[in-house]
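Q: Xylose transport system permease protein XylH, please. Structure only.
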Amino acid sequence: MATTAPPQPDRAPGGAPAEPPASAALHTGTSDIRTLLTRNLRQSGIYIAFVAIVVLFAVLTGGTSLSPGNLTNIVLQYSYILVLAIGMVIVIIAGHIDLSVGSVVALTSAVSAVLVIREGQPWWVGIIAALAVGIVVGAWHGFWVAYIGIPAFIVTLAGMLLFRGMTQEVLNNVSLSPFPSEYSKTASGFLNGLLGGNGYDAFTLLIGAFAVGGYAVSVYRTRVARVKYRQPVESMGLFVAKIVVVGAVVMAFAWQLAHARGLPIVLIILGVLVIAYGIITKRTVFGRQVYAIGGNLSAATLSGVKVKAVNFWIFVNMGLLSGVAGVIYSSRSNGAQPSAGNAFELDAIAAVFIGGAAVTGGVGTIVGAVVGGLLVAVMSNGMQLMNIDQSTQAMVKGLVLLLAVAFDVYNKRRAGASR
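A: Structure for Xylose transport system permease protein XylH:
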């Protein structure tokens, strides 16, 4: 869907923008809530579902799922899926798919392990090599998809087989471990005691406060921009309430982490990636072009978008993030295995669609994909705490994914019928 510039506000004498009428920008009471729920049902639905899942498993596990130790384990165990989801949502917004990311995670971690464990290279050489391999793999996929014109489904399916085989060759079908402690700290390390604290880590609470402040500034700027262009926004009371609720959730999460082992280093990596890619997708030309290609390829081409170049870099980026996920996964597992990364692509794709991305492209957000990944993580962790067998867990995940896609199809049909 090609992007269009927002309508310019009326001009007062002298060229200054005229103040929009309050009635055009603010809604109050019942109509305000109804507008929010109907206009942004896709975006708000995932947050409501996430809260419901968290509460459900907190009750079913007697509060164990929200204990400091378990919340820390969720961050450590599912961080690499969230990294993959960040890259996958960009691929899916553009109307593509990547089935190879699990194999690429295995290959990048294998290359890193061979260099660091077998060859005795410094730990940072392994990290750089893993990222470089991921970029090369992404360029390989991007070349075939963007410049040769083979559908991404076929290219990445071939890549899934190709890079799994390469992983087995690199490792000679044997596992390698352990990594040096410096490497392992990438995903298993913590920042604790930097600012002290009596029974808790004050630094973790400070980072949580900064996160809440950054969120408040971001949504306030978005609100000001919408008011400027006479777009509907929620009432000030509801706007403040939203910030308070989000802030309370974030600080409660930070409080639990502060009473466990402190701030996980991998959580900092995730935070940086979410902020960076949120800016890229929302505030850059490249991000707008990705949405344009996925929304309406013909219109994007006629608008001057260099479709081939954008598609190429989309897959290069996916390869880079697969390398990041490979480093995190191998650091977490403290080694590399030929079977590493099995079904990671399915978890990443599920996170993206559950997070609100459209199956036809053009719709999706970084935050939505991360929340979708967290929802899957909370479900998996909760079912593990309840000792539910793996087959039942797989069926539950499959049903949740099916319902998420069905919801997307239903929304599209309803929107088409209302035109």
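A: Brief note, in case it's useful. Strands lie at 190-191, 263-264.
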